[in-house]
């Protein structure tokens, strides 16, 4: 599996393990495994071809920006989402709103996309509708609200060309279909947990609408 990961292939197990490591006993979200989980999710999006490139390109840019924050001279302030929010808010809400490269704004963009992925994976797991329907419903319930009409239109058209659920389960790289479905069942609650802690933290500090 390590070789496959090194070669840039997607593995759902990697994403599961990263999101498992994300939340500490104090319910803090650690940025290193968060970004690691995102790198896996980006590989998932990229393995589907250009359909999701409008989301994956943006996610790639956001992940690199956060990596710069984590590896920079203020790196110790970016160990967890909680420490990052505290650090960036110390300059005052107005200063934070004025910055386009802040960690908070960057995480918020990833956070919205994570909701879409969470809903999409949930739909794939349950297998009640066609993938194009699952993906469109997930998109409309999450990211669509933040995209201009022309992007929404293009996205919805692209989703019509999505491969079947079986093809998706194969992309998960975890063996037979049943195993992929079981692992999705394991991974989704961890992703959901990270999502709700972030949502709560950002709501508490009034950061959910950072421009």
Automatic annotation (TrEMBL):
The record gives the membrane topology as: Peripheral membrane protein
What Gene3D superfamilies does the database record attribute to this sequence?
Glycolipid transfer protein
The Gene Ontology CC terms held by the record are: cytosol; endosome membrane; Golgi apparatus; nuclear outer membrane; plasma membrane
Q: Name all Glycolipid transfer protein domain ranges.
A: 30-173
Chief location = membrane
Question: Quick check: keyword Nucleus in the entry?
Answer: yes
| Keywords of the record | Cell membrane, Cytoplasm, Endosome, Golgi apparatus, Lipid transport, Lipid-binding, Membrane, Nucleus, Transport
A molecular function (GO) held by this record is: ceramide 1-phosphate binding
Q: Where in the cell is it found?
A: Cell membrane; Cytoplasm, Cytosol; Endosome membrane; Golgi apparatus, trans-Golgi network membrane
Top-rank taxon: Eukaryota
The reactions it catalyses are: N-(hexadecanoyl)-sphing-4-enine-1-phosphate(in) = N-(hexadecanoyl)-sphing-4-enine-1-phosphate(out); N-(9Z-octadecenoyl)-sphing-4-enine-1-phosphate(in) = N-(9Z-octadecenoyl)-sphing-4-enine-1-phosphate(out)
Q: What GO terms in the biological process aspect are recorded for it?
A: negative regulation of interleukin-1 beta production
**Membrane-spanning intervals of the chain:** none
Pfam families assigned: GLTP
Protein family per UniProt? Belongs to the GLTP family.
Q: Name the chain's protein.
A: Ceramide-1-phosphate transfer protein
The taxonomic lineage of its organism, from the top, reads: Eukaryota, Metazoa, Chordata, Craniata, Vertebrata
Task: State which gene encodes it.
Answer: Cptp
């Amino acid at each position: 599996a390590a070789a496959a990961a090194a070669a840039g292939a997607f593995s759902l197990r990697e994403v599961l393990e990263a999101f498992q490591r994300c939340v500490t006993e104090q319910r803090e979200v650690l940025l290193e495994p968060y970004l690691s989980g995102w790198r896996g999710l980006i590989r998932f999006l990229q393995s589907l071809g250009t359909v999701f490139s409008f989301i994956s390109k943006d996610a790639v840019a956001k992940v690199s920006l956060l990596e710069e924050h984590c590896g920079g001279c203020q790196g110790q302030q970016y160990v967890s989402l909680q420490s990052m929010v505290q650090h960036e808010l110390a300059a005052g809400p107005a200063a934070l709103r004025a910055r386009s490269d802040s960690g908070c704004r960057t995480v918020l963009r990833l956070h919205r996309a994570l909701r879409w992925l969470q809903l999409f994976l949930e739909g794939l797991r349950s297998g009640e509708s066609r993938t194009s329907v699952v993906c469109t419903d997930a998109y409309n319930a999450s990211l669509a609200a933040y995209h201009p009409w022309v992007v929404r239109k293009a996205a919805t058209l692209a989703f019509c060309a999505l491969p079947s659920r079986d093809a998706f389960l194969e992309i998960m790289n975890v063996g037979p279909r049943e195993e992929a479905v079981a692992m999705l069942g394991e991974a989704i609650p961890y992703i959901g947990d990270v999502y709700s802690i972030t949502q709560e933290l950002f709501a508490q500090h009034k950061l959910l609408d950072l421009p």
